[in-house]
Amino acid sequence: MISWNPWHGCHKISAGCRHCYVYREDAAFGAALPSSEVRQTASFNLPLKRDRKKNWKYPAGTQFALCFTSDLLIEEADPWRDSIWDIIRQRQDCTFFFFTKRIDRLEKCLPEDWNDGYDHVAIGCTVENQDRADHRMPIFLSLPIKHRLVIVAPMLERIDLRSYLDPALIEEVSVGGESGKYARPLDYDWVLDMHAQCQAAAVPFTFHQTGSYLIKDGRTYHIPREHQHSQAKKAGLNDVTFPKLG
Ligand code: SF4
Q1: In whole angstroms, what is the distance from residue 245 CA to residue 49 CA?
Q2: Which of 11, 36, 126, 188 is exposed most, by the fewest CB atoms within 10 A?
């Protein structure tokens, strides 16, 4: 999995953004520019890089995780996004996925030849609470997308997705908690409940990380960063290895 961040920086738009890791990591590294300033990076053309023999630096089959230090659909990047679609179009031998809290902007951000979606692009709609699920999921399901993932992270409360879980439309629901010193806790009962909803709907489920604080059987556990993925995996709830594409 290769991270491809053609731009960096974002601004907060909903409850899940409160302790955004982009801001946190920028602060930790003493970033010269504010995290809310969206700017292009030196990795803008990353998938098109060649080695000394003029072969692709990233070979066929590479999976690119796109825009994890921003949002692909953020307004400030509107003038740059067509170049990204062009790069993605040139690398149909690779796969790309991105998550967004701005699914309501997708339609106006798509390239002209998108039609019913690119086969090698997966889009994850992030829903952190019931309010955002009820706003974003109907939009997400109505759009032409070949591979849909639902990212329930950071999960902030029990969420009912039952009316949206159509296995013909959603390839995976992935749940995670919040990380960092000020993280809001994840209640394991919410995770089990989401798992049950997915099982009932025959939609694959993944618990991808616990976050920093996990409530289980009435106790709150602090999970160090390095164990958050492995502890989630140990729960034994995963149907697929996140992310699955194609
Ligand atoms: S949309 Fe994502 S990257 Fe942007 S502020 Fe919110 S959590 Fe951070």
Answers
A1: 23
A2: 36
For residue range 112-137, list pLDDT tens digits in order. 999 999 999 999 999 999 999 999 99
233: Cβ below 6 Å to ligand 1?
A: no
Measured by CA distance, the residue closest to atom 7 of ligand 1 is 17
For residue 156, being part of any structural domain is answered with: yes
20 lines ligand 1 (CB under 6 A): yes
19 lines ligand 1 (CB under 6 A): no
Ligand 1, atom nearest to 99 Cα? 2
Q: Is 130 within the bounds of a domain? A: yes
Domain count of the chain?
A: 1
Nearest to 60 by CA among 97, 90, 85: 90
From the number of C-beta atoms within 10 Å of its C-beta (0-12, 13-18, 19+), residue 140 rates as buried
Q: Compute the chain's Rg from CA coordinates.
A: 18
Q: Which domain holds residue 85?
A: 2-234
Task: Kindly report the pTM of this predicted structure.
Answer: 0.94
Asked if residue 73 is part of any domain, the answer here is: yes
Q: Does residue 125 fall inside a structural domain?
A: yes
